[in-house]
Amino acid sequence: MKRAFLIVLDSFGIGELPDAGDYGDEGSNTLRAVASYEQFHMPNMAKLGLFHIDGVEYDKKPEKTEGVFGRMSESSKGKDTTIGHWEIAGIISEKPLPTFPNGFPKELLDEFSRRTKRGVLCNQPYSGTDVIRDYGEEHLKTGDLIVYTSADSVFQIAAHESIVPVKELYHYCEIARELCTGDWGVGRIIARPFEGEAPEFKRTSNRHDYSLVPPKTTMMDVLRDNEYEVLSVGKINDIFAGKSITDMVRTKNNAEGIEKTLEYMRKEFQGLCFTNLVDFDMVYGHRNDVEGYAKALNYFDEQLPRILDELKSEDILIITADHGCDPSTESTDHSREYTPCIVYGKGIKAGINIGTRKTFADIAATILEYFNLSGDIAGTSFLQEITK
Fold first, then answer.
1. How far apart, in Å, do the first and last CA atoms of the chain sit?
2. What DSSP state is assigned to residue 217?
3. Contact 248, 264 (CB under 8 A)
């Protein structure tokens, strides 16, 4: 029984890519930033080889490693969640998804308002916590929707749950998804419900993403077509618009994501379990919270032995990321960085350095070869280098 477990530590970059300057991210290094926190402690990831990855500078690393390690280069044009996950799954995007640094076009918002029968507030790039602080009271008075974006390809809609029930907000997001195609085809429409009273508004855990359908074949399509299961934990189902997902569970935080992954590990199935742990990015990276990010990594590391203990004889575990989000820089946006690739399993060699890979898609190619499959995806498998 073959099973692959792929865990994305959302935004856990490990150093700037050569073209980081083109994205305004020169000098970004998420790992270096969080490792500066005095109580940063990841001994289990260290054992698997995290600090032996090329370009990673860290003085507290073991001499020997028990896993396979390397760093992944992003070949796609972009640095957002959708582009990064698509590349992990085997799609290299030659064009970045559209962004709207000056807000969305009037004709788009006019049609959105016509169909939702609600006005629009803000319409500019904004921090998610700042936007409800600055526009929350007006929203409560008028019922108008807070529409905003960021440096990423996103159309975000914030609304107080007492004014716009969550299901109604989700419906508005579905309308926006229908409208946002072609030149307006942002990667994600995101529902951002919040609660509380001014000035202490707080976002709730009822976020929901509505992504574009992947434009090409992914590793999940190949697996599903060959009757393997594809299990989604966290926002994976949203990122891939549900395409080729056979079972899914949403999560409210990293802790729940880890527990749901463990639940899947205890079940009998053949195929892929694809997990996203979003707190690193959403809760800490975008809020420039170095300490919180470091503590979240510490927590993942503390839970990692539980994951390793559940691996069966043929299982393979891959831990990676989709982009960076350096919490120590002035920017609150994603950063263009290398990402880690850690591989472990009873059939995997120890201490192998797979070097610097040209694309995240090498992960997809490796997973498909592990299942003795091939498909019309990007990437080069490194399975033969790492198996006993």
1. 18
2. -
3. no
Mark which of 211, 238, 271 sits at the end of a domain: 211
Rounded to a whole number, what is the largest CA-CA distance in the chain?
Answer: 65
Identify whether residues 165 and 249 lie together within a single domain.
Answer: no
* pLDDT digits 0-9 by tens, 334-387: 999 999 999 999 999 999 999 999 999 999 999 999 999 999 999 999 999 999
- Give the number of other CB atoms < 10 A from CB of residue 332: 18
Helices within the chain (DSSP H only): 30-35, 43-48, 81-88, 106-116, 128-142, 166-179, 219-225, 236-239, 254-265, 279, 290-309, 362-370, 383-386
Residue range 44-93, pLDDT digits in tens: 999 999 999 999 999 888 989 999 999 999 999 999 999 999 999 999 99
pTM beyond 0.85: the answer is yes
Instruction: Domain of residue 305: give its range.
Output: 3-96+214-386
Alpha helix stretches (DSSP H) within 266-359: 279, 290-309
| 251-263 burial code (b ≥16 CB/10 A, e <16) | beebebbbebbee
- Do 189 and 176 meet the contact criterion of CB atoms below 8 Å apart? yes
Considering only CA atoms, which of 221, 300, 217, 212 is closest in space to residue 261?
Answer: 300
CA distance 4 to 371: 9
Cα 364–366–369 angle (5° rounding)?
110
